[in-house]
């Protein structure tokens, strides 16, 4: 399949292609990735691979089905999105379930639930009914920045995928800054040095979100290994860092000042 993704996802893509070609596509996928990763574009490409009649496991980009998916008017592809900045309510899930009970035009329905980790608890419990008894050959894709925000019962019923990368090259200025901040935290650098480095970040919401994606990616690579300073990275340090970054994301969504948030986050991670 044709994806514009970090090369670290190549093994995942080959696994998806094999599932399509061997007829072993699951009924539900939980697709996790940072904000800078276009998870919906990824899910749509996966949908093309499943539905495209021209080449099994591919997305030709030329047939009527691929064209309809590109133009968001494919009858059997249902996309559930928030219309406001609030959580995804139960009504949206019920509407999706009603559509799934209608016979698809083709062989199956495919559902993409954007911002899946923002479903409220009632919506998640409602979705469980569909995950437990999916109608026909339908395929559900739940997109998430942090799958831990979903109920364990949701996670256990899905094939989990994690998309690597932040949507920007690994040698970008943002990536370099993320590595600089982690090195300073490894060194237990004094606050004035952290503050100076932080002044390069947090210019606006999008740049801070990109930095958080890269920092999380670097932490994930180093978990269970040794930090750049040669000191083992204890699980409790990893947990504190992840929680601090997720709290920063949440407060960003509430409209708080990026420059304040990055400084506060570094103080929290530094302990």
User: What portion of residues belong to β-strands?
Assistant: 5-15%
Order of helices and strands: HEHHEHEHEHEHHHHH
Q: At the fourth CATH level, what is the homologous superfamily of the largest domain? A: P-loop containing nucleotide triphosphate hydrolases
Mean pLDDT: 83
Rg: 20 Å
Number of strands: 5
Largest sheet: 5 strands, parallel
* Terminal residue distance: 44 Å
Strand order of the largest sheet: 2-3-4-1-5
The CATH architecture of the largest domain is: 3-Layer(aba) Sandwich
Task: Give a verbal description of the structure.
By secondary structure, this protein is of the alpha/beta class. It folds into 2 domains: 7-162, P-loop containing nucleotide triphosphate hydrolases (Rossmann fold); 173-270. The chain contains 11 helices and 5 strands. A 5-stranded parallel beta sheet has the order 2-3-4-1-5, sandwiched between helices. Strand 2, helix 4 and strand 3 form a beta-alpha-beta unit. The longest helix is centred in the C-terminal third of the chain and has 19 residues, at 235-253. 33% of the residues are buried.
Question: TL;DR?
Answer:
With 271 residues, this protein is of the alpha/beta class.
Which keywords apply here?
5 strands, 48% helix, elongated, 271 residues, Rossmann fold, alpha/beta, 2 domains
Write the layout of secondary structure elements.
Elements: H1 10-21, E1 28-32, H2 39-51, H3 64-70, E2 77-80, H4 90-100, E3 110-113, H5 121-132, E4 139-144, H6 152-155, E5 159-162, H7 173-186, H8 191-198, H9 205-222, H10 235-253, H11 258-270
Parallel strand pairs: 1-4, 1-5, 2-3, 3-4
């Amino acid at each position: 399949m044709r994806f514009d993704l970090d090369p670290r996802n190549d093994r995942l893509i080959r696994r998806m292609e094999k599932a399509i070609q061997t007829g072993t596509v699951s009924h539900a996928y939980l697709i996790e990735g940072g904000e800078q990763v276009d998870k919906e574009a990824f899910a749509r490409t996966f949908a093309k691979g499943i539905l495209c009649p021209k080449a099994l496991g591919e997305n030709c980009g030329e047939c009527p089905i691929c064209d309809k998916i590109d133009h968001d008017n494919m009858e059997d592809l249902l996309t559930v999105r928030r219309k406001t900045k609030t959580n995804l309510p139960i009504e949206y899930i019920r509407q999706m379930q009603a559509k799934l009970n209608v016979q698809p035009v083709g062989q199956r329905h495919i559902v993409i639930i954007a911002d899946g980790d923002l479903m409220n608890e009632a919506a998640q419990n409602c979705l469980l009914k569909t995950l437990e008894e999916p109608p026909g050959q339908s395929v559900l894709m739940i997109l998430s920045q942090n799958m831990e925000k979903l109920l364990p019962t949701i996670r256990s019923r899905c094939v989990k995928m994690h998309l690597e990368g932040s949507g920007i090259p690994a040698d970008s200025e943002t990536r370099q800054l993320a590595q600089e901040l982690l090195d300073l935290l490894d060194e237990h650098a004094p606050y004035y040095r952290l503050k100076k480095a932080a002044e390069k970040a947090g210019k606006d919401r999008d740049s801070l979100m990109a930095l958080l994606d890269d920092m999380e990616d670097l932490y994930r690579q180093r978990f269970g290994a040794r930090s750049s300073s040669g000191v083992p990275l204890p699980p409790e340090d990893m947990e504190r860092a992840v929680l601090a970054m997720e709290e920063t994301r949440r407060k960003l969504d509430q409209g708080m000042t990026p420059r304040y948030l990055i400084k506060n986050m570094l103080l929290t991670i530094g302990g």
